[in-house]
Amino acid sequence: MSEYKTPLRVSLFGGGTDYPAWYKDNEGLTIGGAINFFIRWEDIGENLCTHEEAEIIQKLKSYLGYSDTILNYENNAHLFIGKGLGASSASLSSLLKLLSNDEYSPEEIIRKVTEFERDFLGKDSGDQDQILTNTPGFRWVKFLKNGQWTSSIFNLSDSFRDHLNSCLFLIDTNVARSFPNITSQSIRKTSSHSVQEIHEIAKEAQAHLETNTPSLETIGNLLNKTWKAKKGINPHISNEAVDQIITLLEKEGVYGSKLLGSGGGGFILTLAPRELMKKISNKWSIPVMDIEFI
After folding, report:
1. Quick one: which H or E segment has residue 152?
2. 209 and 31 in contact (C-beta within 8 Å)?
3. What is the CATH number of the domain that holds 222?
4. How many domains does one find in the chain?
5. Which of 8, 43, 75, 148 is the Cys-Cys partner for 85 at CB 3.0 to 4.6 Å?
6. SS3 for 137?
7. CB 132 within 8 Å of CB 9
8. Closest by alpha carbon to 159, among 213, 106, 196?
9. How high is the pLDDT of residue 35?
10. Are residues 138 and 227 in the same domain?
């Protein structure tokens, strides 16, 4: 039995600037990293795929030049799809590793998954997910006007990296996004001011993280600012339930919060001291998942 896995990702800053519709005119910058939750695909010897999964498998095999019709695969992607954690790209990356017997480098996987999602599946999405799910560490990714990208892990002290990881939490809104609330059209025509603000906040966050004394209080404040800017892209990015949770978290004194992905549902990322988050979880009966960058 063969099994291949790819980590999910959390993006703190810059989401929206990773769309070609933005960065080919303005460049782009995102900050985030792979986390300790994974999408797995395995060959189990029997067909347990849904109809939609079977279609994607056959399309990916066609893209890779494979002619067989074997569908003896199983995965756990349904647990995370539409939740703002880059599950689609992570799932395709794991499936690509399985079908190719892991013959591709991370750079080749990034290129192939990006091309497949855009050209074969017709997805209108950004480019950070493919990169962050296939490269380790908490990092920045810069998108260049010529369509290329460059990336590097932040050179943080071990103590600050441990402190950051101890303060990262996810709260599930129990709603999966059913359609994208961020599109190339919305970025290009209706929300350029909001995306520009998101870009500037990402630059500010990068500069702060590259100082000798970064603080989670500052990162949390910037996280709050980028969430407010993100809501300007599309009024459907947030909803009453999400706003209630984030307002509650702010009142309880967390460093910062934002809804991940393109909005409408999924996970809220919260940056807060562990003891405070435990207190909030118990007080308000909010299930919390602790995560860390890997």
Report:
1. strand 149-153
2. yes
3. 3.30.70.890
4. 2
5. 8
6. coil
7. yes
8. 213
9. 98
10. no
- Indicate the SS3 state at residue 18: coil
> What is the distance between the alpha carbons of residues 117 and 110, in angstroms, rounded to a whole number?
11
Is 69's pLDDT higher than 80? no
| HSE-CB for 201 with a 13 A CA cutoff | 25
**Could you tell me the two tokens for 135?**
């490269």
Bridge partner residues of 13 (DSSP): 31
Same structural domain, 30 and 108? yes
Please give the residue range of the domain that contains residue 79.
2-153
| Mean local confidence (pLDDT), 148-167 | 97
Residue whose tokens read 């980028």: 226
Backbone angles phi, psi at 196, to 5 degrees: -60, -40
Contact (Cβ atoms closer than 8 angstroms) between residue 169 and residue 141:
no
Q: Among residues 102, 132, 153, which one ends one of the domains?
A: 153
Domain boundary among 119, 153, 187: 153
pLDDT level of residue 182 (50, 70, 90 thresholds): low
| pTM of the predicted structure, to 2 decimals | 0.93
Taking only the tens place, the pLDDT of each residue in 223-265 is 999 999 999 888 888 999 999 999 999 999 999 999 999 878 8
Q: Tell me whether residue 121 is exposed, middle or buried, using C-beta atoms within 10 angstroms of its C-beta: 0 to 12, 13 to 18, 19 or more.
A: middle
Residues belonging to the chain? 294
- At a CB cut-off of 8 Å and minimum separation 6, what does 95 contact? 4, 41, 56, 57, 60, 73, 75
The H-or-E segment that residue 138 falls in is strand 138-143
Q: Indicate whether 20 and 40 sit together in one domain.
A: yes
